[in-house]
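Try this one yourself first.
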């Protein structure tokens, strides 16, 4: 199982959980499981075409998965994933 850390901005969509343990051999499989269990998260993270929004950052054990094999990066039991949707804003 992979531990998926949930940032505050997504916690309402997952019942307030800070972490979830999800099965999957790749990051894509873990995300598929997340979206199946919590469909509201899909709308926040995934494009209509099925890819992740460009503002979504994914880290495996603190390493940006863009430097690895992106969503096809293999996972080992006990790995930790963190999904961080970039936040924007500023003063008017």
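Now uncover the answer:
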């Amino acid at each position: 199982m992979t531990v998926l850390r949930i940032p505050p901005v997504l916690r309402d969509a997952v019942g307030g959980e800070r972490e979830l343990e999800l099965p999957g051999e790749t990051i894509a499989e873990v995300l598929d499981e997340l979206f199946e269990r919590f469909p509201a998260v899909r709308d926040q993270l995934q494009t209509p075409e099925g890819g992740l929004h460009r503002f979504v950052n994914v880290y495996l054990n603190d390493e940006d998965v863009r430097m690895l094999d992106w969503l096809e990066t293999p996972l080992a039991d006990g790995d930790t994933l963190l999904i961080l949707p970039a936040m924007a804003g500023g003063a008017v």
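Discussion: The radius of gyration is 13 Å. The helical segments are 8-11, 27-37, 39-45.
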